[in-house]
Heme chaperone HemW
Amino acid sequence: MPSVLPLGDPAPSDGILPPQAAVGAGDRAFGLYVHIPFCAVRCGYCDFNTYTATELGGGASQDAYAGTAASEVAFAADVLKDSGVPDRKLSTVFFGGGTPTLLPAEDLALILRTAIGQWGIEEGAEVTTEANPDSVTPESLAVLRDAGFTRVSFGMQSAVPHVLKVLDRTHTPSRVPLVVQWARDAGLAVSLDLIYGTPGESLADWQYSLETALSYEPDHISAYALIVEDGTKLAAQIRRGEVPGIDDDDHADKYELADRLITSAGLEWYEVSNWARTPEQACRHNLAYWRGDDWWGIGPGAHSHVGGVRWWNVKHPAAYAGRLAQGTSPAAGRETLDAETRNVERVMLEARLQSGLEVASLDTVGRHQIAGLIAEGLVDPGAAFRGTLVLTLKGRLLADAVVRRILPD
């Protein structure tokens, strides 16, 4: 089933943001996330807000979706203006899902064109779409490039057929090198997403997937440990004993292998689960999330954040379309973060970055933890002496534990 929305306060029907949202906005970057909630098949591990054709039900249409999303773009521009948030050009745009490229490339181009028409876009801005390897063609990638897309992130996940089968992925491993080449021919930067720790995946399987992915010389790699979410098909299979469960030691071994092989291939980590060939090829959109910039999330279930005000849209595409057709906000709820919550989130996110967290920004308790973290090999001593907390490889494996140590009780 699709993921559950968080609890929060009711969102006003006009979408107007509280005054806090405008404070300091001119000093923050502004990005756009576009959620495309459609998939050809629901993967067994996925709890994202996505729908196959049979799950979609009445009142919602893939064919009409681009126009509906474009109407939220116009609504968003009006809300920001009426809320006193200064005009800013888009610094990043990210189409995620779901499978964005399940829609015609012309539909994605329409949404992007509408957004640029409303806000403009910075020179050299990053514009990314996620894609399944079996959902693009050379022609569709060329359309995306011509529309202004600069980057494509392919959900490769694994190069091993039996692992892909457990994950319910629909593409074959032989498809990946083809789409990587098509993207390069179109002039798009290429990222590959991998998942490790799938039930039944051996260390040798994972090494093969890594070496295969690296042989395609991507500009960027994301490698995420598989998390088994309640309510998914995979969780039920594990509960019934049909596939083995998740092993934390196995995850650690596979992360260490990933870091060693990816680094040896010339990419450098910049966030715990992400590596880029150059600093310029790091995913700037995700960095904006991790650094607390502003973004508007378009689409059902999409989340937005502007100046410490966070909100999320209704989940179902039919409810989402219905609200916009009535000229009302599609937001289901929102929250205004206080200074303490914003600081906690900042520490949690910045500590995961290779650029690190300023030690001086921690409270007294947090600063007093640094020496112990260095002694345990979790924090780089040289960086700490220069005033920045940067995780070692061991620290990246235990990032959540490090964060708990440096946050106030």
